[in-house]
User: Fold homogentisate 1,2-dioxygenase from Lasiosphaeria miniovina.
Amino acid sequence: MTTTRTFTGATAPGPYTTPPTAADPYTYQVGFGNRFASEALPGALPVGCNTPQRCAYDLVSEQLNGAAFVSPRASQLNSWLYRIQPSLAHAPPRPLLPAAADIEAVFTSANPAAVATPQDYGWDKFPLPSASEGHVDFVAGLKTVAGHGDATLGRGLALHVYAANASMGPRRAFCNNDGDMLLLPQEGRLDVQTEFGRLMARPGELVVVQAGIRFSVRLPDGVGRGYAWEVFGGHFELPELGPVGANGMAQARDFETPVAGFDVDLASGWTVVVKLAGRLIEYEQPHTPFDVVAWHGNYAPYKYALERFVSSATSDRDQSDPSICCVVTARCGDGVVADLLVFTPKTLATRDTFRPPYFHRNMATELMGMVYGVWHGSGTRLEPGGLTYEPSYMPHGESHQRWIDATTADLGPERIFEDTIAFMIHVSAHVSLTKYALERSGCLQPVQDDVWRDVEPAFVRHLGALGGEPAAEP
Ligand SMILES: [Fe+2]
Assistant:
């Protein structure tokens, strides 16, 4: 009897793409910051050049870039698109629409609608549109909560919430010229059609659509609520890993970028809504903006499942700073850095350690939201779809009771954040709140009283030993 010990092997039939799932019918290319390449028709991508005299299928070549031409190679961001019609084929923008009442793009003292405050605040779940509001799509449902800097200067950021009950369209697209947008759906999936292809994001995933890219948002579950974080002038990057090494935290291969997909629609009137300096401006075009047959480059939308974040935390004693939970970071000009931190299930194993978040005052402002699960912090009240705000340099931490519990607990292995995804946008600067957030949201929580009021410090019990008047045990 003989045994076969040779095999001719196998070759990949093509580039790897992710398979569809029950929640997401689309496929994706994987990686972060790659030079991707995708063509929906064979041979649509030119070879060896970007602008052939005549493109395959008589497509039009068009570049979109997100970085200055003379940027260092590592920060170059651009893509080449091969499309049926050039993007310039549109009518002049209409006169400015009335300013959207709840969208802000300037957070300096020049804007009376941006309020600087040292008071911490919390918001319950932001409300969905009421029946009397009719159809509210993603753009109409955008409300700015907080921000820093000025979109017109390309410096700073804004945090919006969105609450919608209708898909955009038909034949309606959005383009944010103010900055890159990171969307975090909390209720209902977002079906995002972009010039680069389609993405489906469920609660627990984030989607980034960079500045200048046209996209349309549909709501396959009939409802959409979530967060939209926008950065002016900068782009989202993966943080340096330092001694963590090559692996861990948000791993590059877990980011997913669409494959090329195009529609043919040369007979319909499309409206593109541009956001510029916080104003919405519309223009018409007689063809779909989603007509890109092929593209290549590294300036392209992507999504990421936050459940895939690989936590790296202290395993012996003491605490790591929360930056160990950084998914993406963005430089927003003038040295301002903003990080997206995510809190996912993990095991605490430290000994002789105060395990809740330590008492602290940071230069950073903390904006914290929640996608699903339960938050057990005693210093803030947070529910999925809600928000908390801790201003720069203002002190915060746990209640006295939680301090007692944490300082007397038997410390064994402990699993926390099960079935929970909460996040924090950590901004190394002051962040202003909007009039919408403070006056019109309908979900602002009453200001919390001093959670340590009337507490006698345990230290006084030691005064006798120090030669003072001892206090009785409580
Ligand atoms: Fe904090």
The chain is about 5% helix and 35% strand.
